[in-house]
Amino acid sequence: MVHTTVYGLAYLFYSGINCILLYQLEIESKFYIRYQLIMRVQKETTDAFTLQLASKEVITSSIYNTFNNTNEHMYLQPICNRIFLMTSIIDIASFKAQVLFLNIFMIK
Fold first, then answer.
1. Could you tell me the keywords of this UniProt record?
2. Model pLDDT, residue 11
3. Cα–Cα distance between 58 and 50 in angstroms, integer?
4. CB atoms within 10 A of CB 10
5. Domain ranges (residues) in the chain
6. Which of 49, 73, 83, 90 could hold 54 in an S-S bridge, CB 3.0 to 4.6 Å?
7. What is the CB neighbour count within 10 angstroms for residue 47?
8. 87: Cβ contacts below 8 Å, ≥ 6 apart
9. Where are the beta strands (DSSP E) in the chain?
10. Number of helical (H) and strand (E) elements in the chain, helices listed first
């Protein structure tokens, strides 16, 4: 009886530790994916602007093409919506302000 209780408690403790570690790993991987996404979006929008193609359609299609073969489609729509918001509020010539705006929205 005592052995069963000890083994049961040990198993529950072990299971709890595993759940906590898996949850922590999941959270860290989400933040890492989000960070990579921000970096790639910045690079794509910078490239588009450098080529004088910084219109809403070109930037968003560029981002869609970047993530076309990945599993990150669920992140694309909010990013594109934010870019539409940026380009309608901020003058497209002030590109530095747009990148800053994108960073502020993506970090939240």
1. Membrane, Transmembrane, Transmembrane helix
2. 60
3. 12
4. 10
5. 30-107
6. 49
7. 14
8. 55, 56, 59, 98
9. none
10. 4, 0
Give residue 45's identity as a one-letter amino acid code.
T
- The residue type found at 78 is P
Three-state DSSP state, 91: coil
Buried b (16+ CB within 10 A) or exposed e, 78-88: ebbebbeebbe
- pLDDT value of residue 30: 58
CA dihedral 4, 7, 9, 12 (to 10 degrees): -120
In this prediction, residue 91 carries a pLDDT of 47
Positive/negative CA dihedral, 72, 73, 74, 79 = positive
Vertex 87: Cα angle to 81 and 58 (nearest 5):
80
List the pLDDT tens digit at each of the 108 positions of the chain.
455 565 565 665 555 555 555 555 555 555 565 555 555 655 655 554 544 444 555 555 555 555 555 555 555 556 555 655 555 544 444 555 555 555 555 554
